[in-house]
What we know:
Elements: H1 6-15, H2 19-24, H3 30-37, H4 44-51, E1 57-63, H5 68-82, E2 87-93, H6 98-101, E3 114-119, E4 124-129, H7 133-142, H8 157-180, H9 182-188
Parallel strand pairs: 1-2
Antiparallel strand pairs: 1-3, 3-4
Amino acid sequence: MTELDxxxxxxxxSQGDEYDAYLAKDPSRxxxxxxxxxxxxxxESQQNVLDGFTRSMKVLCLSxxxxxxxxxxxxxIERLASACDRIDLRWLDRDEHDDxxxxxxxxxxxxxxxxxxxxxxxxxxxxxxxxxxxxxRAMAAKQLGAACPLPGAHVxxxxxxxxxxxxxxxxxxxxLLLRLSPRLRQKHGD
Length: 190
């Protein structure tokens, strides 16, 4: 098994796609993703958080265009990344990049979306997924039996907004970890 070292993560990042190129690989699924995109807005306070980022972060999103959770959360992840020039996000199909997916299993499972956060020099910071707390709370409240909702299933606005905030909170947590890192503070003289 390959270790999640900077060389491996840099290679995976270089193999990743920009968002539109990633979606274009499966044209039959694009409409579901675009429908969610249309419902997303970044608030002024959320944009202020993103504008305060000072450290660059390299980010990978293991995903599947076929996955209902990816259809809902993927556009959120992209919207946040595209609103901040400090976030360099690449998309990888989980099944095509099983060497990475195998190393970022959650509860011994291949989950999507799984976001891998790295520093500017591809040191691993952590990974997060497959659903945010808001998504799990909603599933528990609805007592869903399926492991993954179908693409296109309606998501209430309050859940959509709270899930987007969950993702922003995770990006901010990583940014603060990078900003307070003694290694990076020494490197940048701050």
